[in-house]
Amino acid sequence: MQTAAFTSKLVSFARWFTPLAALAAVIAWFVIAPAGALGKMDAIGYAVCHRIDARSLQINDRQLPLCVRCTGEFYTAGLALAFQAFVSGRKSKLPSRGILAVLFAFFVAFGVDGSNSYLYLLKQTGGGTGPLAQFPNLYTPNHILRLFTGSGMGIALAAMLYPVINQTLWKELDDRPALDWKKFGILTAGILFLNLLILTDSPLILYPIAYISALGTLSLLVLVFSLLWIILMKQDNTFEHPRQLWLAFASGLTLALLLILGIDLARLSFTGTWSGFPGLSG
Question: CB–CB of 15/244 below 8 Å?
């Protein structure tokens, strides 16, 4: 009884405090982040990505907010979540075992290509000498593999996260898979087509992808922190309408921005640059 009363008081306090905290976090982010709209996106990518120039796509020699792998992962995750919200509604069941097997293959490909690429980076940084020089790479890393394996991971993240979101939020659930084979095929084919467009290096494609990838990163953080807030407030499975979620998502946005700001400031004080880590290239 006391716990319920304390939770109720905490929620009441949060109703007026959270909007102020969210506004303060947004203002701080705008002040600290580099100038310009893409500069704000850079500040998001800076918190989660190494941002090595040679491993990033370019718009007229202007680096995108995230490296190629992270661009693929987070633009895909953002679009995949939006796709499921549009076609699946409140469906809350995980995909079938067959789809889960494909998602696991995406995860493995992401891990293998990432590890191979990281080994290649360390060997380049070491000038081809040192203990790592004796370990051969499976293959030479390239942007195509980074983009596609990143996108596969983005699909896997969104496919697993979306049902969990519905399972946490809604009072009445639709106990059907959020992704069936037809929807999964449409989603995967759409991402494949977008990746081929991205590889043309056209600014008409890269500009929106730059924003979608950065905002996809922010969206994932907001969703995770919002779910955490809902669970801590013991409000899971109590919502009936999206408008009831404003406080949880405002709290998630505040926490996500505070995390980004904290990482940005720590990294900036350590490296002194908004670009990639000094001394790392290739």
Answer: no
Asked if 234 contacts 248 with a C-beta cutoff of 8 angstroms, the reply is: no
Q: Could you tell me the pLDDT band of residue 109, with boundaries at 50, 70 and 90?
A: very high
For residue 180, the enclosing domain spans 2-271
139: which residues sit within 8 A by CB, 6+ positions away?
Answer: 116
Task: Tell me how many domains the chain contains.
Answer: 1
Distances from the Cα of 258 to the Cα of 56, 110, 219, angstroms: 26, 28, 14
Is 281 a domain residue? no
Determine, yes or no, domain membership for 278: no
Nearest Cα to Cα of residue 182 among 109, 105, 101, 95: 95
Span 51-66, mean pLDDT? 91
Higher pLDDT, 45 or 26: 45
Residue 157 lies in a domain: yes
Q: Strand 62-63 to strand 91-93: parallel, antiparallel, or no bridges (unpaired)?
A: unpaired
- The answer to whether 154 and 220 have CB atoms below 8 angstroms apart is no
Domain assignment present for 282: no
* Gap between the Cα atoms of 8 and 228, Å rounded: 17
CA distance 36 to 213: 17
Closest by CA position to 149, among listed 187, 108, 179, 190:
108
User: By the 8 A CB rule, do 46 and 128 touch?
Assistant: no
Determine what percent of the chain falls in helix, strand and coil, rounding each to the nearest 5: 70, 5, 25
The mean pLDDT of the chain is 88
- The arithmetic mean of pLDDT across residues 5-12, rounded, is 60
Percent of the chain past pLDDT 90, that is, above it, reads 62
